[in-house]
Amino acid sequence: MATEWTVRDITRAMLPVLLALTLVELGSGLVLGSFESQLYRYPTLLALVPVTIGTAGNLGSILAARLSTAFHLGTLSFDPTDEELAGNAVATVALSVTIFPVVGVGAWLLTSLVGGTALSVWTVLTVSLASGVVLAVLAVAVTLAATYAAYRFELDPDDVVIPLVTNSCDVLGVVVLFASVQIFV
Amino acid sequence: MTIRDAAVEAYREALPALVASLVGGLIAGVVLTGMRAELREVPGLLVLVPALLATRGNVYGSLGARIATALHQGLIEPSVTAGDRRLRAAAAAALGNGLLASAFAAVAAFLVLTALGSSVAPVGVLVGIAVLAGLLSGLVLVAVVITVVFAGYRRGRNPDTLVGPIVTTTGDVFGVLFLLVAVRTVLAVVEVL
């Protein structure tokens, strides 16, 4: 995309998408607001919020970037038996199974250092790992759907897919964390 | 290439970036737990947190990607002292758009929460906090993104793979940190008035 490098042209290209994404993120804020009292009572859960949505967004954006590159190189086909596609999907789930236990234990350790963990490390670990696995599966689904849509509508996946995937994974991160807290806490 | 090979390669390439942003996210989370008093004092602020953090990623991630592409194409030199006009325009546009999106998020959160009948702080307080936090973290992020992309490029690293993890990590940490600074500042100002 060849935008001229002036404040006006960059703003024209960026601002509408940015404001739309802000509204999407506000949705995730509203979900967060709906379990505000639980988050204040159990600070460890509050500590999980940025890292869970950040990691979910990163899983999605890394997958999107890789699929987008494969797509540009012409090595990607939308077929469940495609090695590139299946391998990347498997890797996303494997990454979440690696990272989210560290997320849970790390959040518990750090909040116990600054004083104030009302939850056991196992509860936090369960909440975090369960959220992580569900999020990985959702991130794969959203990324594949967005990349496929970009391909069908002949849009450059670099421009469209990554912001879309990152922000919807942010929202899904909060929703899944909320569900997981309701089940396990 | 088998599915296993593709998976192993994707896993190895992604893990370092995820670990880096994990550390940033955890630090941001701890700062956020230290903000509980302020979050209670300013109802509606928690609802703003994801939008404010995402704005940092969206705006400065895009600035980083833009600079990385321009370096690849030879449009700009990897040096700040050159005082490139285009670089200044891109930085100014990022900062301006980041501030607009932050203020917009604050106003929208206020309207939605009012419509839902939830308790919410005055719109001026929310906008003040969002804009001040956006300005402080924006200035730091512009400096960090430009420095790291240039330094990485000069050392022969692909700036494209540097931008994402750096923006998420520093964006989370400075986003929450300056949010804390902004809340305390705005609350102190409100008290004086």
Automatic annotation (TrEMBL), chain A:
Q: Which InterPro entries match?
A: SLC41_membr_dom, SLC41_membr_dom_sf, SLC41A1-3
- Care to name a GO molecular-function term for this sequence? monoatomic cation transmembrane transporter activity
Output the Gene Ontology cellular-component terms: membrane
Q: Which UniProt keywords apply?
A: Ion transport, Magnesium, Membrane, Transmembrane, Transmembrane helix, Transport
Just give the chief location class.
membrane
Q: Where are the transmembrane segments?
A: 13-33, 45-65, 85-110, 122-148
Q: How is this protein situated with respect to the membrane?
A: Multi-pass membrane protein
Name all SLC41A/MgtE integral membrane domain ranges: 49-179
Q: Where in the cell is it found?
A: Membrane
Q: Which family does it belong to?
A: Belongs to the SLC41A transporter family.
Q: Which PANTHER family match?
A: DIVALENT CATION TRANSPORTER SOLUTE CARRIER FAMILY 41 (PTHR16228), SLC41A_MGTE INTEGRAL MEMBRANE DOMAIN-CONTAINING PROTEIN (PTHR16228:SF7)
* UniProt-recorded name of the protein: Cation transporter
Organism annotation: Halogeometricum pallidum JCM 14848
UniProtKB/TrEMBL annotation, chain B:
In this protein, which residues make up the domain named SLC41A/MgtE integral membrane? 49-181
Q: Which compartments is it annotated to reside in?
A: Membrane
Output a single Gene Ontology CC term carried by this record. Answer: membrane
> What GO molecular function annotations does the UniProt record carry, in alphabetical order?
monoatomic cation transmembrane transporter activity
> One Pfam match, by short name?
MgtE
Superkingdom of the source species: Archaea
The record's keywords, sorted A to Z, are:
Ion transport, Magnesium, Membrane, Transmembrane, Transmembrane helix, Transport
Q: Which Gene3D superfamilies match?
A: SLC41 divalent cation transporters, integral membrane domain
- UniProt key word Lyase: no
**Main localisation, per the record?**
membrane
- What membrane topology is annotated for this entry? Multi-pass membrane protein
Q: Where are the transmembrane segments?
A: 14-33, 89-113, 125-153
Q: Which family does it belong to?
A: Belongs to the SLC41A transporter family.
Name it. Answer: Mg2+ transporter
Q: From what organism does this protein derive?
A: Halogeometricum pallidum JCM 14848
